[in-house]
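Q: what does this look like with zinc ion bound?
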Amino acid sequence: MIMKYLLLFAVLFIAYMMWRNKRIDNGDAAARRGPAQRPLAMVSCQVCGVHLPKPDAVIGSDGLFYCSQEHRQRAGRQ
Ligand SMILES: [Zn+2]
């Protein structure tokens, strides 16, 4: 009756491999989520062209984005 134990072992081994693969898949998914966790919209300053997150940008009266109040005013003067 050793075949019975071999079959049981095989089933347990397959179950273990599936559990392990599932854990690895979850890890990869978490790793992929990591860098994209903050899907910040990036905008570029109209004066110097620097890219910065939209929440950090200064929005001018013309609806354009600037990296700082200084550049917003500089653009207004031109
Ligand atoms: Zn700028």
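Residues 45, 47-48, 50, 66-68, 71 surround zinc ion (CB under 6 Å). The beta strands are 42-44, 51-53, 58-59, 65-66.
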